[in-house]
Amino acid sequence: MNRYPLWKYVVIAISLVVGVVYALPNLFAELPAVQVSTSKGGVKIDTTTLATVESALKAANIDFRGEALDATGIKIRFADVDAQGKAKDVLQATLNPNPKDPDYIVALNLQSSSPQWLTSIGALPMYLGLDLRGGVHFLLQVDMKGALEKSADRYTSDIRTQMRTEKIQYAGVTREGGNVVIRFRDGSERAKARLAIDKAYPDLAVREVDTAADDLRLYATLKPEALKRIEDGAVQQNIQILRNRVNELGVAEPIVQQQGSDRIVVQLPGVQDTARAKDILGRTATLEIRMVNDDPGVLEAALNGNVPIGNDLYKDRNGIPSVVRRQAVLTGDRIQDAQPGFDSRNNQPIVSVTLDAAGGRIIRDISRENLKKRMAILLVEKNKTELITAPTIQEELGARFQISGQMTTRETKDIALLMRAGALAAPMEIVEERTVGPSLGAE
């Protein structure tokens, strides 16, 4: 009879016990759940929010099997999908009385019913495919009008820079709908500008319009073939950006594909934190840098309801108001990289941004021309703009700079993720969201 040293039997026994313990989570079923989270820095999820959620569910006579409050939000488990769906509607109405400006994200989820002690030691269930394990399905609508407006804004900024570079005298460059309008007071300068634009931007059709003797204009409009190319490219670029964002989330075997002419399907198998996935995929947040209007009396007039034309009034996360010029000097499509970190001087969370060569030149020129003036860093999301911070330009900036403000570590990670994944070619909206059951696995 073969005999082995005792320590070998001990090692085998320990290995079997550890293997069985870490396999146990796969024996526990996943229950339908609703997760409550937020993407706004000024909104906190705490025990008060949890009490509000519990009261709303009890008032609606919806039974739940347990609740949990952690760093990502509130998770509440239910016995079946009917209770889950009713709970989502109730919580959506309770927590977001203004649906156009929601403070909370209420999302469907699947939560493991394995004991807390298993989760605490890192014993998690295996991640399977959508048919085997279930997951979440999103259908997103691409805003084609937003893609064209974004393109027109970019041409407006580029033409303004070109006029300055080539020293062509002009009275102003603005966007009117899908047109870029350049005003002149001299016919010869207008002729020079038309030649320069025709040469630099072959996708633009330029025509002359005379509204008065001293108001000569050029109207630059995208040609039809350019419009079609932008619309087709917007969907493909957004698909690529969504794939990058899904990769950042660490989802295994995701599906991101086009449906129809302007819709995108996203399927995320085995997603536990559905609310965070919805937040990251659904946000169309891009960085914008604008100049603050600190002219005397402007802020006081804006606070009294008289905001100057071409300006907007915003408040930062501390409630400090600023009047910001509407024209963006730099947008998120110039971003090459963004990483969260900490300021070495005060240890506050920051986002370190790296721009491409063109973006670096733009921010260098803007900062050189506006030393000791304030520059607003804004995050634009679904036509809602949030002022992150408005620091004073102390020195000439380059292709690398930092964004600082009253941000938490989680917020800097989310903002950096969105910037690093890329700027969307067009805004998107989630038009359908559902949790997919494990049909094949159930059979």
Account of the protein in words:
- The protein is built from 13 helices and 21 strands.
- The chain is α+β, with helices and mostly antiparallel strands.
- Strand 6 (172-176) and strand 7 (179-184) form a beta hairpin.
- It is elongated, with a radius of gyration of 27 Å.
- The model has no long low-confidence stretch (mean pLDDT 80).
Major beta sheet, specifics? 4 strands, antiparallel
Order of strands, widest sheet: 2-3-1-4
Number of strands: 21
What is the percent of helical residues? 25-40%
The number of helical runs is: 13
Topology:
Elements: H1 6-23, E1 30-37, H2 47-59, E2 66-70, E3 73-77, H3 81-95, E4 105-112, H4 116-120, H5 130-133, E5 135-142, H6 144-165, E6 172-176, E7 179-184, H7 187-200, E8 204-212, E9 215-222, H8 224-249, E10 255-259, E11 263-269, H9 274-282, E12 286-291, H10 298-303, E13 311-315, E14 321-325, E15 330-331, E16 335-342, E17 349-355, H11 357-369, E18 375-381, E19 384-389, E20 400-404, H12 409-421, E21 428-436, H13 439-442
Antiparallel strand pairs: 1-3, 1-4, 2-3, 5-11, 5-21, 6-7, 7-9, 8-9, 10-11, 12-15, 12-18, 13-14, 16-17, 17-20, 18-19
Helix pairs in contact: 2-3, 6-8
In short:
The protein is α+β, with helices and mostly antiparallel strands and 443 residues long. It has helices at 6-23, 47-59, 81-95, 116-120, 130-133, 144-165, 187-200, 224-249, 274-282, 298-303, 357-369, 409-421, 439-442; strands at 30-37, 66-70, 73-77, 105-112, 135-142, 172-176, 179-184, 204-212, 215-222, 255-259, 263-269, 286-291, 311-315, 321-325, 330-331, 335-342, 349-355, 375-381, 384-389, 400-404, 428-436.
